[in-house]
Fold these 2 entries.
Entry 1:
Amino acid sequence: MNDRAIVLEARGISRAFPGVQALAGVDLTLRAGEVHALMGQNGAGKSTLIKVLTGLCAPDAGQIKLLGREVSLHSPQQAQRLGVSAVHQESHLLPNLSVAENICAGRYPRRSWPRGGGIDWPETRRRARELLGRLGIDIDVTQLAGGLPAAVQQLAAVARAVAGDARVLILDEPTSSLDTDEVQALFRLIRTLRDQGVAILFVTHFLDQVYEVCDRMTVLRNGRLVGEYACSQLDARGLVAAMVGRELAETHKSTTPAPDTPDVPAALAARGLTRRGALKPVDVELRKGEVLGLAGLLGSGRTELARLLFALDSRDGGEIHVDGRDCRLEEPADALRLGLAYCPEDRKQDGIVAELSVRENIVLALQARMGLASFLNRGEQVALADRLVAALGIKTASIDTPIGQLSGGNQQKAIIARWLATNPRVLILDEPTRGVDIAAKQELMGEVMKLAADGTAVLFISAEIEEVVRVADRILVLRDRAKAGELPGGASEDAVYSLIAGGMTAGEA
Amino acid sequence: MKRLAQHALFWPSATLALLLLVNGVLNPSFLAISWRDGHLFGNLIDILNRAAPLMIVSLGMTLVIAIRGLDISVGAVVAIAAAVAALLVGGGFSADGAVASRYPLWFALGAALMVAMICGLWNGLLVVKAGMQPIVATLILMVAGRGVAQLLTGGQIITVYYPPYYVLGSGFLLGLPVALWIAALLWLVLQLLATRTGLGLFIRAIGGNPEAARVAGVRAADIALCVYTFCGLAAGVAGLIISSNVKSADANSAGQLLELDAILAVVLGGTALTGGRFSLAGTVLGALIIQTLTATIYSLGVPPEVNLVVKAVLVFAVMLLQSAEFRALVLRTVRARAGAA
Amino acid sequence: MKHPLLPLGITIGLFVAMAAFGGVRYQGFLSLQVFLNLLIDNAFLCVVAVGMTFVILSGGIDLSVGAVIALTTMISAALLQAGWNAWAVMLAVLAIGAAFGALQGFLIQRFGLAPFIVTLAGMFLARGCCYLISTESIPITDATYTAIAQARIPAGLDASLTVGAAIAIVIVLAGMRIAHATEFGRTVYAIGGGESAARLMGLPVAATRVRVYLLSGFTAALAGIVMTFYMLSGYSLHAVGLELDAIAAVVIGGTLLAGGVGYVAGTLFGVLILGIIQTLIAFDGTLSSWWTRIVVGVLLLLFCLLQRLFEARSRRTA
């Protein structure tokens, strides 16, 4: 393995931002024809390193060598010209331009001067089709990119990234929004590129994906390099230990299920809940003190169901009863008033108000429920915030720090604190541990189970089946935007997977 | 001293103080206040009186900008409100030579304010229900609104002959202009609402991250509607004061460029154009700065046209100071120079 | 999935409908000269609206164009009065307009300032400079200018165009070419579609943004030159509120104010629609001129609501 040509060599990369040393003396070696994983918890420095490698951010110290020559990367344009391309997590393509244009943007083929000198559109389309074809993708290149599903956009984005004879391809969390089939399609593409000699840097949270497609890995922790390993050298437990710095004990749910009280109305019950294009009619019931796990692939309707229950999206049919009563549930403010709480999937977009302080973020929902009539004065706000910060172990300089300065995990805890402050009857958690480091994950799950023990009904949504199975009293499985079935707590992961797979027999998938 | 400088109101206050100082040095009688005709009299009082309508409109604009909105139709609403009031008051001479108003004063004023609120509500509905960008939604009323005002006045300037109407713009209460009392009252009400109820927190949350605020249960749509309606109401009040001051309603020029001055006042006062944190007191100071500037230029004998250039320079200066990139650039340059020295 | 040319089709359809309405209702409406007059009377609006189209496509806005037009007429008149050569004056004001625009673009790009407020201040500045030059109107008597102002280009059927209208047509064609066939034009669309994505793709976002405002300043200055042919005077109160008309023309032409979607050809028809409203009202003779503002406002409302409807519909079916 080690005799492959080194394409990119980064040594001693350091970068500081106000208040935090994001990277300190990190090394990275990428070889041609190799898929290299970049691993680390949140705050380990992965995104900063990627910004440095793609020219978005200049390092304070260290050097980068491309094919033996030292380079200084100062813009994405220049990095791409030197052969370092990236497909970033958030934005893939420009939705208002065609696929062909997205792929060729910035490098359009031109007509010769006698014929006008403008962009040669037929050639552009031909080139795009050829590039996609080389990677085994066949789509209509004249379509506007915005009309394509996210997975296809991503494949086209990869095609663009390698179009300019890229030597290094960086994929930043490419599988976060993909389902199993789409992940496999992406992996086939990665293997094709690898075989063509491209050096690929693959950043992901999913450990199994690392072992499936990567050859080597570099582990970061707290901005420092822990080590570089071959995937065959380091197993999953060892990898986790390297990332976290300690071996982890697993938490198990205490196996006393909530007493079955069929006469008491469910805390939250929905019948025939549906929304066009998002969810087919589904019945859901959440009982007091119970953790209901919601499992299913991406796109199966998990988040859509949660959003409908909380009235974030308007439902096209069905009714929702809280504590047995029919009620007005048109917008989140109504849901809040009825004792519902929703911790959204995307905390940056739907969760935190970055400029407001930790205290203000925590009291926001409670104050919203109290409306304009009554007011939590400063003393009450401080007391509430202090109590919750301590209870959840939120690491912050003070409760008046703008919440945007906290790490992802602590922001997540603060959002949960916000909802806990409202003493909810029903708590909906949508991927509460995504992007959160392992230690914080444990603490959060502990809190959730404590809540359920105190009588709150919890709806726990997660992509990690293993997590759901460990924690839930009952598991509701969704498939293709409809209910696939229900399983009792303690069911095996296999049982969940087979419900998700549905009609497929083993060996098909 | 450094902590004082970091206070949000430092720069607006310092600017205002500087302006007054310059005036006082170059023209000592500028700062003189005397008691005449049963009220305070002097240049400063004049400034306060003329700044009042701008203060009022700017207060409304502050909240709109804080929720990431914008209302460029306030000038048109001023014209409409003035037209409605002037039409309803009119003021011809009655048989016995006394001046009467066509409708009772309270009715005329009430109707004008009601129409102004409807204008604000209209803007709010376009933004909230139709999902239009605020600049577009309010652009429509800005374009069409003047046409409507001219329609109401028939293209004429309507003179108001009814003396009680003049109280708003030219009257005095306890020595200070009535208009100032109105502005102060409005400010007080808003300040109480912002600090003693959840409204301040909600507005800052909506401006900081509208989707997150909605998920957190804030009734963002209702609040936005209220804020736009209030902005319309504020413009209406300002329109009444302005037309009362000039004793007429001119649909063409009433409130001309007022939206620009209002936005400038809000920005000078430290409210971020991107939404979120806002400062009512800062806006009031901003309005005073603009008015003092106009008065300074006038009293110094400089051609009034210079006013626009000075306002432009002020806006550029404040915008640059609010820009993080600019501050970073300045810091780097200063540090580099200090390092080289 | 709606066809991307649909908004343009609606705009053209509206224009045809209005023309048909006029032809049916008023005698002599459907003459070639009446239609050419639409272009002649609104030539400067057309020129500046082309520049505004690019700015709006990039997701920005330029409120200073009306003031720059006025400033151009003012500087032209003053320089001509001082004895400058006509062609030198035209080159000079074009350079000034472009520089003004580029400065605004630089401030917006380099310091992350909101386009709205920067161009607002630019508007103050330009108008203020106008007043500083002169508060009165300065007549233009230069021979070259008067010759150009009076020149008529025959367009068949006893109808003719002014030089200004011809310039407008050229600018529209040039704008269409730039938008469709140059890297600059496509990058403008890209920025409007998603600035951070465009930047990550390595597109020259910063340079393009500065250039877009330079283009806007340039077209504003060119529109100012056309206005000097039309008015033969420099006056600080020229083109007050013209930026709003330009924005209205662009929106009615089918360009989304959020950026990324739209055609220069649409803007041409937007200008023609604004012109035809005024012509209809003039032909009517009984309606006062302020009805124009109300009708434009209503049209703007309808088009914006239509845009919202299409967006909502396409999001639902996606």
Entry 2:
Amino acid sequence: MTTALLGRLPRAAGVLGALAGTALLVGALPWLSGADPARSVLRARDVEGTPDAAALEAVRRQLDLPADPVTGTLGFLGRLLTGDLGTSWVSRTPVADTVLPALGVSLTVAGAASLLALLLAGLLTVPALLRAADGRLRGGGPGAAVGGALSALPEFVLAVLLVAVLAVGWGLLPTTGFTGPEHLVLPALALGVPAAGVLARLLAGAVAATAGESWVRTWRAAGVRRSAVATALGRRAVAVVVPQILLLLVGTLGAAAVVEAVFDIPGLGGTALRAALSQDVPVVQAAVVLLVATGLLVGGGGVLVHRLVLGPARTGSGFTPEAAAGRRRPQRAAGVVAGLLLLAVLAGLLRDPTAQDVDLRLAPPSWAHPLGADPLGRDVLARFGHGALLSVGLAVVLSALTLVVGLAAGLLGRGDRSGPADVLNALPAVVVGIVVAAVTGPGLLAACVAVTLVGWIPLAVHARTLAVEARASGFHVAAVAGGAGRWHVVRRHLLPVVGPPVLRHALVRVPHASLALAGLSFLGLGAGAESPEWGRALAETTGYLERAPWVVGAPAAGLVLLGVVAALADPAPER
Amino acid sequence: MNRRTALLAVPALLVSGCFAGGGDSTDDAADRLRVALPFPPVAALSPWTDDALLLTRMGAAETLVTFEASGAAEPQLAESWEFVDDRTAVLELRDDVVFHDGTPMDAEAVAGSLNAAAAADPGLRVLRDVGLVATAVDTDTVQVQAAQADPLLVQRLGAPSLVVLSSDAYTDPAAPDPVGHGTGPYAITDVQGVQSATLDAAADYWGGPPAADGVDVRFVDDADSRTSSLRAGELDVVQGVPIAQLATLTDEQRVVTTSLPRVTALQLNTADGVFADPALRAAAVAAVDAGPVVDGVVEGQADVAPGLLTDDTLGAAVRTAPTLPAAGDPAGASIRLATYDDRPELPEAAAVLAEQLRAAGFTVEVVVQTYATLEPDLLAGAFDAVLGSRLTLLDTGDPVGYFATDFTCDGGYNLARLCDPAVDAAVAAAAALTDPRERRQAAADLEAQVLSTGAVVPVLHEQSRTGVARGVQGVGADPFERQVVTVATTTGR
């Protein structure tokens, strides 16, 4: 009993350390960014005012700014122990009154979105499951392609589209606000549908991989009912996505600022964003500590759920996951879609992406401008083509980076418990962005670092989940019992099983990387202001969705097609 | 409950979780205005912050004086006033004004309110270095006095931060509470955090009975979202309709447009870099053509700026043409042009101007960030050019203050980093003038003097756009953007 308690001590210390560490990081924001918090606070209260010395001095005196980040954070943690979240520097109202209701709202939205994503992904996977139970599954099934397409839909474009069609156009649901369950539908769709795409792709991969295991053939030969086989297959596949769902839930809590803004939802993402920009340290600290605590709780819960779903099989040598075998052939559809994409890009590359003509503002497609013109009268096709190199190139590089980091973290990590991944995943993107921008300065490199910092997490968790299964398999147990070295086990027994699905996962997230870059552009991170990069173009023109759908449509279609290509390019091997 | 049902219950609990308390729960029978204002309260509606604008826009609080289009003071809670000497003025108050909490607005209450504002910490920008002291002379007469001669003494009383609240509002001397303590046509009854506020008509309002039964105000940050809600029929009045959304409005909505004393201008860094050379500044001034920005980017929803100040501001004053040095040859000189995306038109306008400068021979890199992260660099002079939007008549309806903060050596918002002793002297001389007409002519002369340095290129003068549902009448068309909901605003339902 005592040893069990002692064994838990380091983990408890780790949790406390993570909380204190993130609080310190946030507390250091003013020092990292080098921007005077008094000036930021004054500006937040008084937009048109002049930040003169006397006013700044008064604010400084009033805020009782800590002398250094460590003192400030210790004070914050001390108050936290007494249940006091402090007072906002900007509004001078108790932080708890702002942050706690926002957390409740965000939990509601993120919970609904996650549930919806799980249901939708499940529906997309049913055909593949049934076919696998019949032994007829080839590749990832339709779930893979649809999943790839959905996963590349930018959340904010989807949000604006949903408002325009379902709320304004058909009047089915309210546009903005958050006063009842009817306000939950559209945000949940906007956040849940792209997430469902990723999950569907993962499920499709998991089903395809599991379908090849020998027990499926045995069960079928023994005449086990189709529904029973499908259920067993489904359970294994769900085990892979449950940790991903929880990541999504926590990741959405603090990072949905853009979608929250579209629907005017008073969630934690918007609160954290506003507070971080006005350097309202007490509010950001409280928000981040709450998010990280939630992240660790849910992450721990995820491990438990994974164990529950896998059941007793996990502890013995009950699994026989098999390494990919047989020949690989990218699906023909992937080639067709890639060819189309390439043609459009080539056509665009031959045209001038910078020539402006404001008389052509938002001109519809014509012979002279096959995809129309953007708000400055620039040719959309040209910008599409020139943006492709940058968008695809950056996204591929970022995905490769996150893949390497994710695999390393997922495979080399011991055990299955949550760790730094859950902490990082819970941090709002804006906080990560501001910290990185402060350390490296603005630019493309900083944006890549920020995106990689967060992007490896789902991949690492995926790798970790699969590794748990692989470690419980007969061949792994045999290898370990036979005295194989750790590196040997990883290279010969884990990587061949874990690598391909995680690679597929990384491919699905290629368009995400592009959007994540664009999401940081308001901080001066990412592609330059006039760059035709797709994510940037989308972020700048979403407001024109109804007036000139072609301006938004071109880069969005580019990303979706890229998602389809990525989903189909590496199908599960045929058998 | 078995394990699986227990797992299913978790998300269900989450979904049934939290919704924000709403301001729209009132019964349908009441004739209430549904209004969206463009930014959430930053400090629980304390009038000593930008929230003061929200108070006046909701029709919840009022100032002693207000401004006509040129910026001259007009009576509001004060009926009349006169200067006793160059630092003292006496105001006669309306005698029929009652605060929303039922107490009469007498001279004691007004003096208390002004003195509390004068003691605010940090000091209010409109009272900076003024040393205002207010005293009640009799029930309806208040005397205000500045520490030294102050031609703008009465004008200052029109600043939104000096709205008059009843004495109960100042229980916490650091954060006045306007809920139920104002004088406007509508009384705040409840505030739901930073999301919404509920107001009821003030039956004994001095300007007559308000046209609607009440107002449900929502604070919606995102301009496109506000417009969507108006189009969906969820709102009656929406302040700040973005230009990009105008074309999506139908017959069911219309837009009330008002010209603002707000200039979008390109500031050139006169202290460092390429534009330290006056000849290259002149080249940039010559290169900029506001036409494509006004006709294209803002779709005609603005006026080409004839100068920094608007014609409304200058009134009868005569503009003199600036004289610039001969333009030099940029020869590919590299400049960085910064702007912010908080105003959606600015990045597009910057792209058009950058192209014009490129055509003139400059090499231009455009930098776009959100204002909050850009400001430290702006003030530090990190860019060669800054495209920004600026109010030329701020709190007092007086244009001289704009030149003092933006174009003098000690100016707190001198993005052009202009430091010209002649300009400083002219600003100081103009600030001392008491006659409003002389002040305006001095402002016109100052404008020409500043433009002659090539430190700033005016591009356009902005307009405010308030979207209203078809039946709505009587929405405030105020160039100072202080009045939106007025006593006369009706839903038309």
